[in-house]
């Protein structure tokens, strides 16, 4: 008589503060189900000072892996046993793989953004020129990845110019051949000129998360046929303004999807069911009144 072999349930999580809004459990849950993997993906809200203790607990409890979101991505880079070159260069980890207690840290946001522009605009990173409005964690992780992947020129536009300049230093260390320009948000003419020759303009500030937020750059920056992607995963006022001026636009759900796809593949070693994950993401966002 043969004994049925049941795989033990694997545990995964998202660590952040706050995390209640996250749609990753639905997206990852759908992927695990589609591939017949018994797994649970939990949301764990943890304050920064408790992150080291939480990581020790997850390691002890043999969690197979976890995602990391604001504000813990830089801290997680210090807590893993091994770090991928991309995550090391940017100093940020959003995906941890636990193999028998050995933690490896990765950053999948840049891969997510690169996949999203390929899908939405048929644009490749290598040799391209990109404008990032914002120089926070999301812009850091993705722009450093773009430099690693051979972007020719990156323009960093930020309210706090010194932060853009610090990021530019990291990018130059990563790829000395990549031209980097830093601009303040008030430098409207220079932003206009930079955006005109760019393959894609990214909105990577937190402005737009709340309805009624002002736009970080004036609508006059946008010209017909320009590609504009907002990392926020809903139609923001900025996307509406760009669209009204004839731009090709996309919100941040493609980035969200593909960073999750890469996390899934790092955890499981299997090809992620991208369309299943996309459908789950769209369904949950539509349920929340955000049809895209
Ligand atoms: P962050 O590290 O807190 O950075 C915030 C950025 O927004 C900084 O550049 C900051 O400029 C700027 N900013 C904030 N308030 C501003 C204001 N009133 N005026 C002008 N600029 C302002 O946040 P983050 O993690 O980089 O996230 C940025 C955005 O990306 C968020 O909207 C987030 O939802 C989105 N995101 C999307 C994905 C995805 O998968 N689609 C992934 C990650 C993040 P200063 O430096 O001057 O403060």
Describe it.
Helix content is 41%, strand content 20%. It has helices spanning 24-34, 51-60, 73-79, 85-90, 109-121, 137-148, 161-174, 188-196, 237-244, 253-268, 274-287; strands spanning 10-16, 39-45, 65-68, 82-83, 95-99, 102-106, 129-133, 153-158, 179-184, 200-203, 227-230, 248-250. It starts with 9 loop residues before the first strand and ends in a 5-residue tail after the last helix. The chain is α/β, with parallel strands linked by helices. Strand 7, helix 6 (137-148) and strand 8 (153-158) form a beta-alpha-beta unit. The relative contact order is 0.13. The chain is globular. Helix 1 packs antiparallel against helix 11 (274-287) and helix 5 (109-121) packs across helix 10. NADP nicotinamide-adenine-dinucleotide phosphate binds at residues 70, 109, 112, 134-139, 158-160, 163, 185, 204-207, 209, 216, 231-233, 252, 255-256, 259.
Summarize the topology.
Layout: E1 10-16, H1 24-34, E2 39-45, H2 51-60, E3 65-68, H3 73-79, E4 82-83, H4 85-90, E5 95-99, E6 102-106, H5 109-121, E7 129-133, H6 137-148, E8 153-158, H7 161-174, E9 179-184, H8 188-196, E10 200-203, E11 227-230, H9 237-244, E12 248-250, H10 253-268, H11 274-287
The structure holds NADP nicotinamide-adenine-dinucleotide phosphate.
NADP nicotinamide-adenine-dinucleotide phosphate is lined by residues 70, 109, 112, 134-139, 158-160, 163, 185, 204-207, 209, 216, 231-233, 252, 255-256, 259.
